[in-house]
Write a structure and sequence with these properties.
The complex is a heterodimer of chains A (about 260) and B (about 350).
Chain A: E1 5-14, E2 17-27, E3 32-36, H1 43-50, E4 60-68, E5 71-72, H2 80-86, E6 87-90, H3 102-106, H4 108-111, H5 118-131, H6 135-138, H7 151-164, E7 169-173, H8 181-194, E8 199-203, H9 207-213, E9 216-221, E10 230-236, H10 237-242, H11 247-253
Parallel strand pairs in A: 3-8, 3-9, 6-7, 7-8
Antiparallel strand pairs in A: 1-2, 1-4, 4-5, 9-10
Helix pairs in contact in A: 5-7, 7-8
Chain B: H1 2-10, H2 28-47, H3 52-74, H4 77-111, H5 117-121, H6 137-168, H7 171-185, H8 189-208, H9 217-242, H10 245-252, H11 258-286, H12 290-295, H13 314-322, H14 329-356
Helix pairs in contact in B: 2-3, 3-4, 4-14, 6-9, 6-11, 6-13, 7-9, 8-9, 9-11, 10-11, 11-14, 13-14
Classes of the chains: A alpha/beta (about 260), B mainly alpha (about 350).
Chain lengths: ~260, ~350
């Protein structure tokens, strides 16, 4: 199921502004990769270019090549919706659909893509909610609005919604930044379990979180405001946090920079 | 002592010794109001310069002054300002509601005399100047049909146009559409009536009518559509813009195509606001007289076919009855006006209930 993500010379623009430049990086299947770095260094931009969400913004475009198991997702004949079904995404702020119930939120991806059969939807919903560690909390109120859950539950609902369409890669853009420590822990535990099935790439500002959950860590940085973000160092998490090979990485991790 | 007092003004206020402060008793404000009104009455009638309206106005001013003085003396300056502004804001609210209440009261009191079964069952056909009965059945039918057809035309068109502007439109073309929708908002209703008269009644309708131009309810509906369209486009546009971008992105990230995201996520989220905009447009259209007069012509008889011959409408009925010489006509005009307001009110409430029918908000 899980797939390898490989970026070669990826450069992304917002109109005339170059946000990231020449990113080269390969993410192995069934691993958790953390993207860290100061604000504005292009972590999120890179993450969003992996499932072609970057181009949703007016004037935004991506150059270079991004492959999923040797298939370039920026090829001309690639269907964007198929890419996004293969590469799911969880956002910084929980964004359940306000007009839908918990159940409808979880199966939204399936239902809106044409799955009608109720038994399939119910099975998928239970499976996804169990996988997101939310089943026990919501199984008695699946018909209630998804927006009525707490922030941490909403975020797990969004994760359930994402994995219900059975993607191969899951991107997470600071999924815990709006959550309290307990909900954060629940989601970190979840990432450990999801690693068995999915390739996970997570953007985080929380160094401890990166150290706790990830196998590999990529450090992004910028020279100064207005410069494009670059990949400074990419290595095993343990190596990055104990003995980084670039001085800049060490400065950032130890808090002497940024 | 003097030094501390002056230094208090220049520096930020020091921490108060106590969190408690003196308050005016609860009866102070009503008492001041009564005294102010009494004083004002004495002054006005004493001087013999005006009536009850002047008493209330002068009383309100005296009340504000008295309230400020009393609060200033007991509670301090900040609290006095707070009380004065609260009172001013409440008076502004009363002033805004007063005309509304007055209109409703006038309509109900004057319209009640002809609010009988006969009014809703008969038309003005063969009703002479000396006949006390006669009704607005034909006008109600006309209003419902014309506004209904106009709604059927404008809602899909307006909502789709707004979707184009918000979700798809980029560059000069979308800008031009927005600009012309804005311009259309300012079109006087008589102009839209003239447009339909020149275009539909005089040029197109002869094709369907053996070469003779014909008034029709449908022409009125077209004229009303011209008026409703910009309102619906603009209000829908604003509502669609209020739908948070993360919701759209959340759907895109699930691999949902754009059109389906708009249909199943964006529109349902914006629905209550869109319904409100549509109801405003309907209320405006139902009250238009001039275009109906120009292109549907009005008429005294019941005509349920909107595509042929003259049709009346409630607002046109009001206009005609109000200008009629018969002594029975004014009562009919008032009742028709009351009916029109009630009709719009009922439609609005029904639409709001339908939009809220979403079982999630129950």
């Amino acid at each position: 199921m899980a797939k390898r993500v490989s970026a070669t010379n990826v450069t992304a623009y917002y109109g005339g502004f170059k946000a990231i430049e020449n990113i080269n990086l390969t993410v192995e299947p069934k691993t958790v990769t953390a993207l860290i770095g100061p604000s504005g260094c292009g972590k999120s931009t890179f993450l969003r270019s992996i499932n072609r969400m970057h181009e949703v913004l007016p004037g935004a475009r991506v150059e270079g090549s991004l492959t999923i198991d040797d298939q370039d997702i920026y090829d001309r004949d690639v269907d964007v919706t198929a890419v996004r079904r293969t590469i799911g995404m969880v956002f910084q702020r929980p964004n359940p659909f306000p007009t839908m119930s918990i159940f409808e939120n979880v199966v939204a991806g399936l239902k809106l893509n044409g799955v009608r059969k109720k038994s399939i939807l119910e099975d998928a919903a239970e499976k996804a909610l169990r996988a997101a560690n939310l089943w026990g909390e919501v199984k008695d109120r699946l018909g209630k609005p998804g927006a009525g859950l707490s922030g941490g539950q909403q975020q797990r609902l969004c994760i359930a919604r994402t994995i219900a369409v059975e993607p191969q890669v899951v991107l997470m853009d600071e999924p815990c930044s709006a959550l309290d420590p307990i909900s954060t822990l629940a989601i970190e535990d979840l990432m450990f379990q999801l690693k068995d099935k999915f390739t996970i790439i997570i953007v985080t500002h929380n160094m401890q979180q990166a150290a706790r959950v990830s196998d590999r860590t990529a450090f992004f940085s910028i020279e100064k405001t207005g410069d494009p973000g670059r990949l400074i160092e990419y290595d095993n998490t343990q190596k990055i946090f104990s003995n980084p090979s670039v001085k800049k990485t060490e400065d950032y991790i130890t808090g002497r920079f940024g | 002592m003097t030094t501390t007092a002056t230094s208090h003004r220049t520096r930020p206020p020091a921490q108060p010794d106590s969190l408690r402060a003196k308050r005016l008793p609860w009866y102070a404000a009503p008492a001041i109001a009564v005294v102010a009104l009494a004083l004002s009455a004495v002054i006005v009638y004493g001087a013999g310069v005006g009536g009850p309206v002047l008493v209330v106005v002068l009383g309100a001013i005296l009340y504000l002054v008295g309230l400020f003085t009393a609060a200033n003396a007991v509670e301090g300056r900040r609290s006095a300002r707070n009380r004065t502004w609260s009172a001013l804001i409440h008076s502004a609210f009363v002033l805004a509601v007063l005309p509304l209440v007055s209109v409703v009261w006038t309509l109900v009191s004057k319209g009640a005399s002809r609010l009988d079964a006969n009014f809703f069952q008969t038309s003005m056909n063969n009703i002479g100047a000396r006949d006390a009965n006669g009704g607005a059945y034909h006008a109600i039918v006309g209003t419902l049909e014309q506004v209904g057809i106009a709604t059927l035309i404008t809602v899909p068109l307006g909502v789709l146009c707004a979707i184009y502007i918000v979700e798809y439109g980029r560059g000069k073309f979308a800008f031009a559409i927005r600009f012309f929708v804005d311009v259309m908002t300012g079109i006087p209703s008589i102009v839209s009536g003239l447009f339909v008269l020149a275009f539909w009644v005089l040029i197109v309708s002869p094709w369907f009518n053996d070469g003779r131009p014909s008034f029709s309810g449908f022409a009125a509906a077209l004229a009303l559509s011209v008026l409703m369209l910009p309102t619906i486009v603009r209000s829908t546009e604003e509502m669609l813009r209020l739908v948070p971008a993360p919701l759209r992105e959340g759907a895109y990230a699930l691999g949902v195509p754009k059109w389906k995201t708009i249909l199943r996520v964006v529109l349902p989220t914006a629905l209550p606001g869109i319904v409100t905009g549509v109801m405003l447009a309907i209320a405006r259209a139902a009250g238009e007289t001039a275009p109906v007069l120009l292109v549907a012509g009005g008429g005294a008889a019941i005509n349920t076919n909107p595509f042929e011959n003259n049709q009346s409408s409630l607002s046109l009925f009001v206009y005609q009855q109000a200008g009629d010489a018969s002594k029975y006509a004014p009562a009919r005009a008032w009742t028709a006006a009351l009916t029109l307001v009630a009709l719009v009110l009922i439609l609005t409430i029904a639409a709001k209930l339908l939009a809220r029918r979403n079982r999630l908000s129950r």
